[in-house]
Fold Arginase.
Amino acid sequence: MTDAFSRTVSLIGVPTDVGAGARGASMGPEALRVAGLAEVLQAQGLRVHDRGNLAGPSNPWQPPENGYRHFEAVKAWNEALHGAVFDELQQARLPVVLGGDHCLGLGSISAVARHCRASGKKLRVLWLDAHADFNTAELTPSGNIHGMPVALLCGLGPAALTGIGGTTPAVRPDQIRQIGIRSVDPGEKRLVHEHGLEVFDMRYIDEMGMRHTMEQALLGVDDNTHLHVSFDVDFLDPEVAPGVGTTVRGGPTDREAQLCMEMIADTGRLASLDVMELNPALDVRNRTAEVAVDLIESLFGKSTLMRKTAPRA
């Protein structure tokens, strides 16, 4: 975090769970605030502006239509978020999106991609998640759009969602690195392979370690790269973070997640962040929010050890 761009952080709350299959992620923004997110960022020397919460339609809690649940509500929330994130980037601020369910990655990342096109920056998206979120209406078993944002960003779906950022596709698969994946539907898996997404799943992390994983995921990131992190809290093992609606056993430990965040921070290129799927209704005394805030603190520069240079291999 070395340039003027990254010294001012804007918190954008998006209190909705319209894309999810369980209620409760709409309370995520306040849980992160209660856990002291603004204060830990200020302790890292950042100026923090809390923009409050965006407004949007309530969750109608209806069954899917034509393969999508709550299509119009998802569209409205993501359009509002796209505008908010793009405005902050245009003012040289680092937007931190407080979700909300992960369908919101569509609005935030389409705004980041639009900003990169306008500014001539390269885009790298790190998608930290238990799920690939590469479903389509034809493949999804549920119709929940929080399982589709990566596919939508890559142009797979109706223009009303894929075109939110003004360009379809908003991103190319080669701009995305997925980390921590361990739950993928069979049809979704075929689609991931067809489109060439680079996925570092939990077997890869088990075999190669988190350090090597992050070295590969960050390969090619340079001074002209806008690095966006989309952090779904279910990336973590549920023993570490129980407060999510879609827990999947066998995720990164707290220490592995800390290393992941510290290595991202070491690049100095972090320029936007999503924090998604925190569900206080399923949490234990706000523990998951506190874990998430601790990891975000590492993402913005807190390290375990004070050292001048990275250790040599």
Observations:
- The two ends are 24 Å apart (CA to CA).
